[in-house]
Amino acid sequence: MDQDKKLSVSELTGMIRQCLENSFGPVVVEGELSNYRPSSTGHLYFTLKDSGAVISAVMFKNRLRYLGFEPKDGMLLRVRGSISVYAQRGSYQIICEEMEEAGTGDILAILEKRKRALAAEGLFDEGRKKPIPRFPETVAVISSPTGAAVRDILNILARRAGSIRVIILPAPVQGTEAAPIIARRIEQANQWKLGDVLIVGRGGGSLEDLLPFSEEAVVRAIAGSAIPVVSAVGHEIDWALSDFAADLRAPTPSAAAELVSSSRTEVLEKLRRSAKNLKETMEGRLERARLLIKPFSTEDLEYRFRAMLQPRLLRFDDAKEALLSALSDKIGDMRRRAERALINLEAANPQAIMERGYSVVVREKTGAVLRDARETGPGDRLIIRPLRGIITATTEAVEIPAANTTEG
Fold it and tell me: What separation in angstroms does the CA of 139 have from each of 133, 142, 198, 278?
């Protein structure tokens, strides 16, 4: 090739494409799935990587019917396809014709092991979860201050609940220095009580990009936070161990902002609907009342009111008189019964009987009252008690009327 020939970018890329695609036939590549992103058109875009390199890959929609599983970041895959150049981006990639699982990737295996260990300590227990405040006054956000996630959170909070105060605690969200700084920001937020709720997260990325949020220091800081924490890492299909330790997992940072402001928005909306319904109801009732009284003048209304009221007042007076009369009769009857009972009681009084000349006779020896002459005999000592005083006597003879001798 002429070394001085000037090439356009498209010409050079076309030459590279021709060289690559002619040099490689079908290839079989094994690597860990990362940055898996299904597109809205149905194609699958992802990368395959190992410890030393990364290569882009795509599987087009027409080959998905041969796929017998759902790919996930961290899987170890074996793909068969061909090398191609994507000229628009100046990158090369594998066009996958077939794909099969080859095991679990190194990162996913590490995360699963760490997840089991932290779960065994109880850091993911539901009993540790704290409720998210319904009406937070201050929301603290731990994320990159220049990231799209922070902008999304601020925009949504301003739109849905402008009175909420937002404090940004800046922290890198990618790289080896990210995890300790994120953990320290969580501790500082608790130490200085910087918010009623914490949002900890970032935008989407590959499994490796999200690793800081799966580091043990971050997970422990979230689990130990006295302030409720919402984990908002990546997109809905992404996950990190912070999701399990947090009090609430949001599918995206935007969703986190909606979750912490949902109660306030719902209450305001409910109040607006209630006020509208109340106003409409009252207006409807007033309109019906106006229609009802419209045919009548004030005098006519007063006449009709009196016509309805007076019969009821008369019935009320009659009922009152009947009730008072019945009560009076009942009281008089009870008084008469009480007087008769008193007379009977006085007649049965032993004092009154003895005043009429009767005495009580008892045997001196036993003190038993004599009710029959046969209860004594000659020589028995008797005590006689008239109304006043005591008489002691001796029985000389006992006579029983003839009519009574056969009794007993």
Answer: 10, 10, 6, 34
Whether the CB-CB separation of 181 and 145 falls below 8 Å is answered with: no
CB 101 within 8 A of CB 70: no
C-alpha torsion 148→152→154→155, nearest 10: 130
Summarize pLDDT for 153-186 with one digit per residue, the tens: 999 999 888 889 999 999 999 888 999 999 999 9
Nearest to 226 by CA among 118, 134, 346, 140: 140
Q: Count Cβ neighbours within 10 Å for each residue of 87-100 and write b for 16 or more, e otherwise.
A: eeeeebbbbbeebe
Contact 141, 260 (CB under 8 A): no
| Residue found by looking up tokens 């009681």 in the block | 345
CB 323 within 8 A of CB 355: no
Give CA–CA dist 398/351, Å, rounded: 28
pLDDT, tens only, 376-404: 989 999 999 998 999 999 999 988 877 65
Q: What is the CA radius of gyration of the chain?
A: 52
Among the listed residues 385, 32, 406, 328, the one whose alpha carbon sits nearest the alpha carbon of residue 207: 32
- Give the bridge partners for 55, in sequence order: 48
